[in-house]
Design goal:
There is one protein chain. This protein is mainly α and 327 residues long. It has 2 domains: 205 residues, 3-Layer(aba) Sandwich (Rossmann fold); 88 residues, Tyrosyl-Transfer RNA Synthetase. It is built from 13 helices and 5 strands. β4, α8 and β5 form a beta-alpha-beta unit. α7 crosses α8 and α10 packs across α12. The structure holds adenosine-5'-triphosphate and L-tryptophanamide (LTN). The site of adenosine-5'-triphosphate has 20 residues, from α1.
């Protein structure tokens, strides 16, 4: 069975962008692939976290992984910090990656601007820890949103560099994009991606938002000038809303456009809010049940870490031996 690996930072609320761009694909792919899904807490601390909140966010994220339909019997769910091979391999990659390569990363450039007072070295070397997360498990695909494509390209570059020097060491992983919605845009600014670290909560819909909040956020969402509910280059805001509607309702964008022909934005937004609320209802029920049993979530993470460690240590030991560091 071919392998996939992906991860999300336990740094805040999971939103529809995370779900449509990443999580939803994971649920579909778990049937066909040997799946490893990580909670990347060492990545999350590149932005200062409140310790208690980070612990809570970690459990909240495992609960969300399960609530959307990942099956812990089938997939390996684990926390990055439980498998020390990740930070060890990341250090080795620090000695193989070039400053210029990391300076080109758009996520770094954005985050450095966003966090002027804490533009720490971890923000800069972040992609190398991500490369280690991936390459330790030799996956064929990495299902992530489009914003992470550049990091996957860097990961491939590093893997090839190591393979050229030391012979076959790493599988070269491929970016796996969601067929629709690989980049969901912010509701209050369709030129920016929907993001959990956005300054305004009006930009995203959290998977845990109540029906009232969802209705308000959708009502407030930006639209384009005009009245027709159509997708296209000149209507980026509507295209984004139509994409969300289409993915969550299993209708094509054309079918949704037809449904709201001649009805204006108000009716469409009301329909969209209903679709989102109905879609999230069962996820929210599951999530609440799962969060009431933290020891069970801890057990799942422990079991996952044990499975992950076996594979990660094997790769790390191979790399160490190749560079001349024998146990
Ligand atoms: P932050 O805003 O703090 O950078 P984030 O909301 O981008 O966080 P991540 O933890 O960085 O969330 O991303 C988790 C996964 O969700 C990644 O695979 C990422 O590509 C995907 N993702 C994040 N935002 C979007 C989006 N707007 N559309 C599609 N996929 C997204
Ligand atoms: N950088 C990713 C999160 C991430 C990741 C990974 C994704 C860290 N390690 C390994 C896939 C595989 C992000 O979404 N910001």
């Amino acid at each position: 069975m071919e392998r996939i690996l992906s991860g999300i930072q336990p740094s805040g609320t999971i939103h529809l962008g995370n779900y449509i761009g990443a999580l939803r694909q994971w649920v579909a792919l778990q049937e066909q692939y040997d799946s490893f899904f990580c909670l990347v807490d060492y990545h999350a601390i590149t932005v200062r976290q409140d310790p208690e909140q980070l612990t809570y966010n970690t459990y909240s994220l495992v609960a969300m992984y399960l609530a959307v339909g990942l099956d812990p019997e089938r997939v390996t769910l684990f926390r990055q910090s439980d498998v020390s091979a990740h930070t060890e391999l990341a250090w080795i990659f620090n000695t193989f990656a070039y400053m210029g390569e990391l300076e080109r990363m758009t996520q770094y450039k954005d985050k450095a601007k966003q966090h002027k007072k804490n533009n720490n070295v971890g923000l800069f070397t972040y992609p190398l820890l991500m490369a280690a997360d991936i390459l330790l498990y030799q996956p064929k695909y990495v299902p992530v949103g489009e914003d992470q494509k550049q990091h996957i390209e860097l990961t491939r570059e590093l893997a090839e560099r190591m393979n050229n020097v030391y012979g076959e060491t790493f599988t070269i992983p491929e970016y796996f994009a969601a067929p629709q919605g690989a980049r969901i845009m912010s509701l209050d600014d369709p030129t920016k991606k929907m993001s959990k670290s956005a300054t305004s909560e009006w930009g995203y819909i959290a998977l845990t938002d109540t029906p009232e909040v969802i209705t308000k956020k959708v009502k407030k969402a930006m639209t384009d000038s005009g009245t027709a509910v159509v997708a296209g280059k000149t209507t980026p805001a509507l295209t984004n809303l139509l994409t969300i509607y289409s993915v969550l309702s299993d209708k094509t964008i054309q079918e949704v456009e037809a449904l709201y022909q001649g009805q204006g934005y108000g009716k469409f937004k009301q329909g969209l809010a209903e679709v989102i609320i109905e879609y999230l209802k069962p996820i929210q029920v599951n999530y609440a049940t799962l969060m009431s049993d933290i020891p069970m979530l801890q057990r799942i993470l422990q079991q996952g870490a044990a499975k992950a460690k076996l594979i990660a240590d094997k790769t790390l030991n191979d790399v160490k031996a190749k560079i001349g560091i024998h146990p």
